[in-house]
Amino acid sequence: MIDVLSITSKKILLLFWTLFFLYSCSAQKQLIEGEEETVLKENLQYYLYFPKEYEKEDSKLFPLLLFLHGGGESGETLGELKKNGPPKMLAEGYPFPFMVLAPQNPHKKKWWNVHSVMQLLDTVIAHHRVDPKRIYLSGLSRGGSAAWDLAVQYPDRFAALAVVCGMAPVPYASWIDRELPIWVFHGTEDQSIPFSESEDMVAALKEMGYDVAFTVYEGVGHNSWEQAYATEALYEWMVKQKRK
């Protein structure tokens, strides 16, 4: 008598392993290894300011402030930068004691490409008499967020950092150079980027022993940059800083 049950079980088992083999082959084909070299091009317009002493002292290296604007000036004409911060002050004739590099984010609704910004900075340093140990970094709003990002990703490049109402990468606070002097500004009534962004970042940095100053503007909204960049002590503080 033929064992029908045994034959049926063997057929089912054979079918199972056949399907498993086909599935395995298919899965292996879905997972491949590859490599591609990517090239990102960015068109950065910028303002570059030279103090009067630059031409007179032709063998001297000068400090440089890298300033990153906010979202409102992104993707517009370069002249839009003159609405706020150091570019506005330059347009009004303010005599900064150092060079100022102010690039423009060409994208209206994209974050700053910080790697392109660093390429621009390196080009300026290579072609002008910039002291690489006295590069100051500052930004407001979206530019303030980018300033934090630059300090995290390039911890050995800057001599001082001033951030005005920027979103802060608190989980990566420890990546910032522990010797970097930092000054943060924020309004308590900021409805665009919450005051807590700066508050939490400053608390985290201080807990780890960083040198951080925090200026709080009670009752001030998102435009805290108007008071922050009008602070003469900010620029006096910057010129005292130098990387070891």
TrEMBL record:
Keyword annotations of the record: Signal
SUPFAM superfamilies: alpha/beta-Hydrolases
Domain Dienelactone hydrolase: 121-223
Keyword Signal among record annotations: yes
The keyword rRNA processing is annotated on this UniProt entry: no
A UniProt-annotated Pfam family: DLH
MF GO annotations: hydrolase activity
Protein name according to UniProt: Prolyl oligopeptidase family serine peptidase
Species whose genome carries this gene: Muriicola jejuensis
Lineage: Bacteria, Pseudomonadati, Bacteroidota, Flavobacteriia, Flavobacteriales
